[in-house]
Amino acid sequence: MKLRNKPRQNKTTLPKIRILLIEDNRLLREGLTSLINGYKDVLVADVSNGRDHALLKTRSVKPDLVLMDFGLASQNSLNIVQSLKKDFPAVKIIGMGLIPTQVDIMEFVQAGADGFILKNAAVEEMIKTIRIVAAGEKILPPLMTESLFFQVVEHALLSGKKNVKSAIRITEREKEIVALIVDGMSNKQIAERLNIATFTVKSHVHNILEKLALHSRLQIANFSRDEM
To answer: Edge-to-edge, what's the strand order for the sheet holding 42-48?
Structure first.
């Protein structure tokens, strides 16, 4: 009896997602490299401490994706993102941060980043983010996607607007109150300055907090300095 040879099965090996990791903390840089390279479909092709020229590294490595620290001590991360997107528009960029504010994250996305991952996220979540962004989608942390602030700014980004303030409708009266909050005035002092009731000021402050998805007067002041 003649045995037939079994047809060979062609095993197609998908190319790995090549990553350039930009992180100025050596321990994190080495740790992330080891963790990422433990997965079959992703590869840290090269690393950078943030002090060398990111554009030269990208040109040399030809990565599919750049995974970079949001708070590089030696350089402005937003400038790096803008430069990378200008010279290498096809390269995907994911930012990493430990305790970024919502505004921090949106500024990073507006600069050209395709995603953001919190540094306290699980490794599986990080790998999932890398895969999703490499496939062409944008992704942000869950804390962002559930907020009104994110929905407003997402609409602005999709409609082509360049900054957050153009997307959030703050009335002239609210702008006046924000300016006085920045000056350190209390609700009572603001009421006296604008000749309105203290209750009315509280109502305006509540509306401002809701529109910006913030939680305190201090956050209003900080947001105002950055955006308004």
So the answer is: 42-48, 17-22, 65-69, 92-97, 115-118
Q: What is the DSSP letter of 207?
A: H
158-217 pLDDT tens trace: 555 555 555 566 788 888 998 898 888 999 999 999 999 888 898 888 888 877 767 778
Ordered by where they begin, the domains of the chain are 17-141 (3.40.50.2300), 172-227 (1.10.10.10)
Burial of 222 (0-12, 13-18, 19+ CB in 10 A): middle
CA distance 121 to 144: 14
Give the HSE-up count for residue 58: Cα atoms under 13 Å, Cβ half-sphere: 23
Single-letter amino acid code for the residue at 25: N
Q: Are 149 and 143 in contact (CB under 8 A)?
A: no
List for the chain the helix, strand, coil content (%; round to 5). 50, 15, 40
- Tens of pLDDT, residue by residue over 2-18, are 445 555 555 556 789 99
Asked if 117 contacts 129 with a C-beta cutoff of 8 angstroms, the reply is yes
Which residues contact residue 74 at a Cβ distance below 8 angstroms, ignoring those fewer than 6 apart? 24, 49, 50, 51
- Tracing tokens 């003649």 back to the chain, one arrives at 2
Q: Cα(157)–Cα(152) distance, rounded to whole angstroms?
A: 9
Dist CA 165 CA 35 (whole Å)? 39
CA distance 65 to 56: 15
